[in-house]
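Local shape tokens

___
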Amino acid sequence: MVIWSVPENFNPSPMETYQDNQGLEYSASSSRSIEQFGKLISSFMGYKPDIGARLKALLKEDPNMPMGLCMKGYLAKMMGLKGLHQRALAIVETLNGNTFNNLGHRESLHIKALEAWCAGNLEKTADIWEEILLHYPHDCIALRLAYFNHFYSGDGRRMRDSLMRVFPFWDPAHPHYGYVLGLYSFALEECREFALAERYGREAVAINPEDAWSVHAVAHVMESQERHQEGIDWIVGLEPHWSKVNNFRFHLYWHQCLFHLERGEYESALDIHDRLLVSDLDSDFYLDLCNAASLLWRLELHGIDIGERWQVLLEAAKRRIEDRDLVFASLHYLMVLAAAGDHQSVNSMMDGFRQWVDSGDTQGQVMHQVGMTLANALIDIRQGRPDRAFQSLTGIRYMVDLIGGSIAQRDLFNMMCLDAAGQACQHLAMRALGAERTTFRPHSRWAWLRYAQALQHAQDQVRAKEAFDHASRLYSDFHN
């Protein structure tokens, strides 16, 4: 995604107030700008690869359009890059330093939201977006960005409730209705309301099979319910449609890899990693690195030799050392640095984390509460100190939600904790965690094998044999 800087000769010209097809008002130089902005929002909602091109075309014709500039700032912030954060700050200064005639209530609130986001006050930012939705429930920008913020706060309930508050005002005839269904579907899944989540997700995909987020929402349901082969069939069957979107498509391939992992189809997961997950690292889309790093770590937990693949990710991770937008993403960058053995970069990143803690912004508070502990645990695991890693991970395991991301993404830290217990010879703790995990994920061969090992170390040979036998049956079931 390309973000353009604010023109040096920026000078707001007289504007008129126009309405789009949904009655939302915009300050713009012509009605054509409203039409172009509508197409931009459609691309934004659908993860289309032409978002940047549409924004550039809009601002070329109407460089002073307040919502066009605000959208540029929003997209810059969503990339999570330090350099683009600086550009977003410049846009805020430009918007606040100029007087726009006819600036509307909704537009003013969006500018305040961008300013709060740039200041790192995510609670205030989300509150402003939610205020916009109180007055303008069809504002797709506020809807998607509030949702994004709630997601990276690890708050599924707020995601769900934010959608619930506006859902009754959305008519199925609205061109973006399917996207809203998909957002609602995933939020329901994160609240473990699986039946309703799948219903809305499938309905959204029926409306628009190119809606990658909705395909992804149903895949999450299937992952949570351990419907592994069904999940593969769902993703692969719809691939000709959702693969047209931007780099978010690689996250769908990541989900396919999770299903292959549980089925013991490691070569399939490695093939997808090599062909697809790392195919566009130069784009600097943060989720690409997160996908690849978490998959490689999972593969190693499954006992798979991943060769030199950490080195493939190293340069991309080093470019993100100074980013301070999302603790979730930064922890994944650290995974790469630590696993690749780049101690100098690890130390640089940890220095940055400590400064982040002192910043006082929302994500800095998350780094203080849980991020630093997770970071130290990752380093301890890679540097052969599983006892310290286990103590760290058990101490904050019920706080990990604070870093955001999905339940499926954060589950990696549960797997790390279980593995660290075994490596640290904490066999009773490993047995307890294994019992917990096999109850929660009864079709996970990996969980049953770890549980069996713990039982064996605890001299419970009868239950150990039962657990090993169960793991063997699962593997046979997968491949018969």
Confidence is low (pLDDT under 50) at residues 1-10. Residues 362-382 form the longest helix (21 residues).
